[in-house]
Amino acid sequence: MLRVERVTRFDFLSGEYADLFARSNATAFQHPVWMDAVCRHLLADARYRATTLVGRRATGQLDLVLPMVDRLGSRIFEFLEAADMGVSDYNMAVMDPGLLAEMSDRAGGPDLRAVFATSPAWFRRVRAEAVEPLRLLGFSKRSAMGYCAHEVALSAPFEDWRARTLDPSFLRFLDRKRKRLERRFGLELREMREPAGIDMAFTLMRGFRESRMRDDLLRQERYFNFYRDAAFRGLPSGLTRTFVLYVGGVPRAGLFGVFHKGRFAFLLLGFDFAGMRNASLGVVLIDKVIEDCIARGDAVFDLTIGDQPYKQNFCPTSQPMYGMWGGPRLLTGLAHAAYAQVNRLRYGRGGRRLLLPALGRSARGVAAVQASRD
Fold it and tell me: DSSP states of 244-264 as a string?
């Protein structure tokens, strides 16, 4: 059906990948600009070996791409995982829908164990709809990640959405906070669309977050540069949005996210907690950005991965996250069993987390901690 090979250098900005991405059901985290920025900033390190699985028809048409990486950097033993590098919340195979249909009809496709002859392979952060394509590709074992992704369906007009969706007590709290800020100072949400504005927004967020998030990815220069670069280069295609909330004409909070096929995924947030401790700027900013999303006609506001309590204020639908395992049966089975045991120790019975993150951390701050432990 396909000729599948491993490629150490793949051009995610190529026309053929852009065409495959447009045909596929992939997420914003497989977008050409996002993946190119991951390669430029996060995989340009001798400790990592990029390995992209590339599947082509006999005609040469690109129909399958699986971006992966060997994090161990060992020349003796290889352990491959999805090349998200802690910044991509949803991983999936970038696949032509026709290929997926053929694989479903035949109850299987190209077996990746032939490609990964001696290497266990792990795709983490997999949404439910991405499980079956990976299973058909030979990722035969599934693990629960122990946390969920959360999303909210949007509809116009904004005020009707709020009244219909939010809990009345939280809505009263949110209105009180917004009106008090608007009366005393004035509130203005601005989208940054120039390099100087984007640079200011990320510098602002890093400064606000560093005193409260010891493990924050923005503390690392390569991650800071990755986000800033992706934010600017994603503008022409509409992939990225970077917001700053001005209170009384002063920038007090920033938020960054990605957009694809009607879904805005919120990724980074930082606000002036020290200067405006009781203003609840985090939820006020999210509320303002949701208002902006509804005005644009977006269908979903995605709060992404992590079970932080504040997300429940927006009454989201929860989506369980999975890890998919492939490769040699023995090594894959051992790796799967070891991960399941670690997960039980981390999350306890029933998948409930034993150690909850500190209240008040932003979504990406906690997700960064989780990413370093997964």
Answer: EEEETTEEEEEEEEEEETTEE
Residues 237-246: tens digit of each pLDDT: 999 999 999 9
User: Fold for domain 3-144+322-357?
Assistant: Aminopeptidase (3.40.630)
Q: Where in the chain is the domain with CATH 3.40.630.30?
A: 3-144+322-357, 151-317
Are 81 and 122 in contact by the 8 Å Cβ rule? The answer is yes
H-helix or E-strand spanning residue 133: helix 131-136
CATH homologous superfamily of 151-317: Gcn5-related N-acetyltransferase (GNAT) (3.40.630.30)
CB atoms within 10 A of CB 340: 13
217 close to 368: Cβ distance less than 8 angstroms:
yes
pLDDT band at 357 (very low <50, low <70, confident <90, very high): very low
List pLDDT tens digits, range 189-235: 999 999 999 999 999 999 999 878 778 899 999 999 999 999 999 99
